[in-house]
Amino acid sequence: MKKFAPLLIIGLWITLFSVAYHYHLTNLSIEEWKTLLKHTSVNIPILFVLVFCLRIILFIPSSVLIVVGSFLFSPIEGICLSLIGMFLTETFIYAISRTVFQNKVNQFIHKKYPSLYEKILNNRSRYLFGAVATPLAPADAACFAAASTKMPYFHYITVVLLGNIPIAILYTFYGNLLISSTWVTLALSILCILVTGILFVLRKNKKQEEVKKIISP
Hints:
By secondary structure, the chain is an all-alpha fold. The protein has a domain at 42-181. It has 10 helices and no strands. The chain has helices at residues 5-22, 30-38, 44-58, 62-72, 75-112, 114-122, 124-133, 139-148, 153-180, 182-215. The radius of gyration is 19 Å and the shape is globular.
C-alpha cells in the first residue's frame, strides 16, 4: 500500500486542483481574494487559515495571502493568522515528505550530488532558515527537502517559524503601505524586485560554481 501512496496523493492533488480551477480559484488577484474572504458567511479568520493551508494545491504564494490578511485584519492579527497557516502548511509538508517521499528524495540527492548532500545534512538549519526567511525563495521546496533528511520535527518547525516571522511582518506592513501609498509602494516593489533578481542571479552563479567544485573529481 505504501508504494502506491505517492500516486494516491498526486491523484488527490490533481482532483482538488481541477475543482479549484473549475471554480476559478487558481487565478484570483489580491483584490478578488480580499472580496471573497470578506463577503463569506464563514468565520473570516478560520476561512483565511483554511485557504492558507490549501495554497499549495491552489499554487498561491504565501506572500499573496499575507498581503490579503493585512487588508482584512489588524497587523498583529494578520501576522498571527499567517503564522498559524504557515505552521499547519509546513507541518503537512513535513508529514508527507517523511512518510511518503523521504526515500525517493534522499536517494535522488545522494546519488546525484553525494558531497553536496553531506554538506546539506551538516547545515540543515542554516539552509532551511535562509530559504524560508528570503523573499521569493522556494520555501515549501526547502521545507520538503529538509524534512526528507530526517530533520527532527521540533527543530524543523522552530526554524520554519523563526524564518517566517520576518516574512510575515514584511508582507503585512507592505500590504498596509499599499493601502495608504499605492504609487510609492509600487515604485518600491519594482526596485525590490530588480535588486532581488540581481542578487538571486549572483547567488545562483556562486552556488553553481560551488556545486561544480564539489562534484568535480
